[in-house]
Amino acid sequence: MDGDIGKLRWRCRRGMKELDLLLTRYVDEEYRDAAPDHRQAFQRLLDCHDPLIYDYFLGRASPPDAVLASLIERITVKRSNDR
Q: What residue spans define the domains of the chain?
């Protein structure tokens, strides 16, 4: 699984510092223990274009399904609690 984590960390490098931090933090701190549906949703999230991901995190766009919405909320709430 560590090889998978390395690949995921690489895919988290988006070119937008805020996205890089949010996505990498999720991989490092929560991905290993996440439910399988959240792991799949995270991989789908990484397939999205950066502006859409950014809009999800800012609440400007709604994710297409409940699992992805739950994941986005988890990542953004975690970020808010860490401030």
A: 2-82
